[in-house]
UniProtKB/TrEMBL annotation:
PANTHER family attached to this UniProt entry: PROLINE-TRNA LIGASE (DUF1680) (PTHR31151)
UniProt-recorded Gene Ontology molecular function terms: hydrolase activity
Keywords: Hydrolase, Signal
A UniProt-annotated Pfam family: Glyco_hydro127M
Domain Glycoside hydrolase GH146 substrate-binding: 651-787
Protein name: Glycoside hydrolase family 127 protein
Domain DUF4986: 541-627
High-level lineage: Bacteria, Pseudomonadati, Bacteroidota, Bacteroidia, Bacteroidales
Length: 793
């Protein structure tokens, strides 16, 4: 790596100084300088623009008007009520990005309408504030007084507000709207007024709750103005629980809400970039490396049920419906871009390419344009999609942005040196240098790319073409007018072409692909199949795709249809070397580029003609990303032992009407948790919650109108402290517990409590409460299920 970095720096020596730019990222080409040509990314961008115009902008603005005391022009969205306004901020960003990328006046007009309405809100508030947080003014007033604990009565208000900060910034950065810039800075000044009275301890307490990229936007304000008060505030939003551990190279992410942490690291990178602060740089870099190298799946995503898993819990990825969240990857790409600005190393782009093709591109439905929240890693599960003006998920917000800015990282520049990072059909107009570059490629179906240079007069500059990780050292070719420049190049580096360029010069890039198996992190018995950087998946059925296009229900973003037993999915059986040998003989499917069959790969006759294809093209289907791979002995063991365990899990899942992973942020928010004198933590790789000395915690569970049900509660089997509590349904005690000495075994225990008929009759939901006795503890509770009493229903 040091040799590669040194070679790159030698190539970059001697450039002219940076030119002043009216944007935040000096190595980035403006979106209006990069035009996507026909291909999957242009299709995604065009479709996304169409979908954006289907949203009711007045409904998106309604929370801001309501909180400012102005009459809304549209109804509030009922979905994700309590987080009102967050999608509106994303939508403003997406409009600005689409206007910059396409020049379509319809996006500019709608963006300016939003800014005008938000300006009315800011003027009515009179103090720089704009926000859709329900009853937000009362909250901010109390926080200013030091009552930071009140924040836990709200749904992630700083996270919510961050989306508008970012939207106003983006309206200026991408679309040049100066009014948005001033509104952004006025909002920044308001925020400084809220947090400046707080002690460092109060800030740290408040930052235990998800706050988005507040450190990032204040760092941006510093770069925009040069005023150090914004940099100081960015540092105040640096959650030291994470910053300090990451800076020391300590991974403390197990069981932590993933997308709470990633935006913090984006902020650390921005502070490091602008303040040349080594602590922040070390923290951002270590975070990136530990997430990418230890916690990301083959398609670039991370997290299960929105949380980073412990090594010992890796199998939950395969057992659970809720795989990596799209928002996480959106923010990881932002972090990657930032670190690349500081250190332009190919390894950053290698990850970016993997995540862009296999996750981000895959999260848009190619026909109706709906967005995906969770991409399950479970074999033979599926994904659901949003619909305009219905689902108001966080991943709808980031989805609006994802497909608007595909042109942002294909090319970058350092002074007068041009980086070709991604193989995407596109045209670059480097206005400042008078250089145009047209990239023609059918990648990934085409193993290479053609670059044509256009200049008004001969120009000397350096072109750096990425040699990706997936091309062998001896096979990469970069030919310019017949001369080979890639000789001696190694994977995950750049090939430097340093020459005087003439109009019409052509660079031919050849990137032969190979098939490889990639093991699941910490679980080598599961593998993904990649050809080059592309994850090959397979369609395995369309049965019971329940809720495929989500409605406004609270949990509509989760693919709730029945799980398929793993033993009914296709396995890769045999020695690993034999499996890889078969994959080296892929048989192309006629008329379908990058689609293959593999003779003899699957034992089951049902799957003998299974087609492998790019995962990003699989929609409206159950699918395979990860495959159980084992030799004959392991397969026999699976059939005799693990199959029975899988059958039991599936039977329990079929009985489950609703479930809560206690102590995990999103499942608790989804179930409208309330609590008093309650704490949470992790033990043996699982999250828990308890309540002490008369305290309680409660959740709202859906019954789906069913009766004859029970509660199934998971406890630790060897509790020693005083743990006496009541379990109540809608205020009525249905059981009293004392866990001390009850089982005396070092394992988790499930206890089933039958619910009386009158606790369920005629109800669509119930409130479940765990109430501690005075001086005692309720819990810890590790998991909650509401289950039917009919086995296998």
């Amino acid at each position: 790596m040091k040799k590669k970095a040194w070679a790159l720096m030698v190539c970059l020596i001697g450039f002219s100084g940076l030119q002043a730019q009216d944007k935040l990222y000096p190595n980035t080409f403006a979106l209006n300088e990069v035009t996507l040509l026909d291909g999957p990314f242009k299709h995604a961008q065009d479709l996304n623009g169409k979908v954006l115009m289907e949203y009711d902008v007045d409904r998106l603005l309604a929370p801001f008007l309501k909180e400012a005391g102005l009459p809304p022009k549209g109804e509030l969205f009922p979905n994700w009520a309590g987080l009102d306004g967050h999608v509106g901020g994303h939508y403003l960003s997406a409009l600005a990005m689409h206007y910059a990328a396409t020049g379509d006046e319809a996006f500019r007009q709608r963006m300016e309408y939003m800014i005008a309405e938000l300006k009315r809100c800011q003027e009515k508030n009179g103090d720089g504030y704009i926000g859709g947080v329900p009853n937000g003014k009362a909250l901010w007033s109390e926080i200013r007084k030091g009552n930071v604990a009140l924040i836990w009565k709200y749904w992630v208000p700083w996270y919510n507000l961050h989306k508008l900060y970012a939207g106003l910034r983006d309206a200026w950065m991408y679309a040049g709207n100066e009014e948005a810039r001033q509104m952004f800075l006025d909002l920044c000044d308001w925020g400084i007024g809220v947090v400046s009275p707080l002690t460092d301890a109060q800030m740290e307490q408040m930052l235990d709750m998800e706050f988005g990229g507040m450190d990032e936007v204040y760092a941006d304000a510093y770069q925009m103005t040069g005023d150090k008060k914004y940099l100081d505030t960015a540092k105040r939003f640096s959650h030291h629980w994470l910053l300090d551990s990451m800076a020391k190279g300590v991974d403390n992410l197990d069981n932590k809400h993933a997308n709470t942490q990633v935006p913090k690291a984006v902020g650390y990178q921005r502070i490091a970039e602008l303040d040349h602060n080594r602590t922040y740089e070390d923290a951002a870099s270590f975070f990136w490396h530990t997430v990418v190298e230890n916690r990301s799946l083959a398609f670039g995503g991370n997290s299960r049920r929105e949380h980073f898993v412990a090594k010992t819990d890796s199998k939950s990825y395969i057992e659970d419906r809720e795989g990596p969240e799209s928002c996480n990857t959106n923010n990881m790409l932002k972090l990657t871009e930032g670190l690349f600005r500081m250190h332009p190393e190919a390894s950053y782009v290698d990850f970016y390419e993997r995540a862009l093709y296999n996750h981000i591109l895959s999260t848009q439905h190619p026909e109706h344009g709906g967005y995906v929240y969770f991409t399950s890693a479970r074999p033979a599960h599926y994904r659901v999609y949003s619909a305009p003006n219905q689902a108001m998920w966080c991943c709808v917000g980031t989805g609006m942005e994802n497909h608007a800015k595909y042109g942002e990282f294909i090319y970058t520049h350092t002074h007068d040196s041009l980086f070709v990072n991604l193989f995407i059909a596109s045209e670059l107009n480097w206005k400042e240098e008078g250089i145009r570059l047209r990239q023609e490629t059918g990648f990934p179906a085409e193993e290479g790319s053609k670059l044509t240079v256009s200049v008004d007069k001969p120009r000397h500059f350096k072109m750096l073409v990425r040699h990706p990780w997936w091309v062998k050292a001896s096979e990469m070719q970069v030919l310019c007018n017949g001369k080979e420049y890639a000789a001696g190049s190694e994977p995950s580096s750049y090939v430097c072409i340093d020459r005087e360029w003439k109009d019409g010069d052509v660079v031919e890039i050849r990137t032969p692909m190979h098939v490889k198996l990639e093991e699941f992190p910490n679980m080598p018995e599961y593998v993904a199949i990649l050809r080059g950087p592309i994850v090959l998946g397979a369609r395995v059925g369309t049965d019971h795709l329940d809720g495929l296009v989500a409605d406004d229900s609270r949990w509509g973003h989760i693919a709730s249809g029945p799980l398929v037993p793993v033993y009914e999915t296709p396995f890769l059986i045999g020695e690993r070397a034999d499996i890889e040998e078969k994959l080296n003989h892929l048989r192309p499917v006629a008329g379908k580029p990058f689609h293959y069959t593999v003779p003899g790969l699957f034992r089951s006759g049902k799957y003998k003609d299974l087609v492998l294809e790019p995962f990003y093209g699989i929609h409206d289907s159950r699918y395979m990303i990860y495959w159980l791979s084992m030799d004959e002995t392991e397969y026999a063991h699976y059939q005799s032992e693990q199959k029975a365990e899988e059958e039991a899990r599936i039977a329990l899942d079929r009985r489950t009407v609703d479930a809560i992973a206690t102590g995990e942020q999103q499942p608790e928010a989804d179930h409208l948790m309330k609590n008093e004198n309650s704490t949470k933590g992790n033990f043996n790789g699982k999250a828990w919650r308890d309540a002490k000395d008369g305290g309680y915690f409660s959740y709202v569970l859906s019954t789906e109108g069913k009766s004859d049900m029970s509660l199934l509660i998971t406890y630790w089997g060897n509790e020693t402290a005083d743990r006496e509590f009541d379990i109540l349904v809608d205020g009525k005690v249905i059981a009293s517990e004392n866990l001390v000495g009850k089982w005396n075994k070092q394992e988790f225990v499930d206890v089933e409590y039958a619910l009386p008929d009158d606790a369920l009759q005629g109800k669509k939901e119930i409130t479940l409460t765990f109430q501690s006795k005075p001086g005692k503890i309720a819990g810890g509770v590790f998991f909650i299920r509401l289950v039917t009493n009919e086995q296998g229903e």
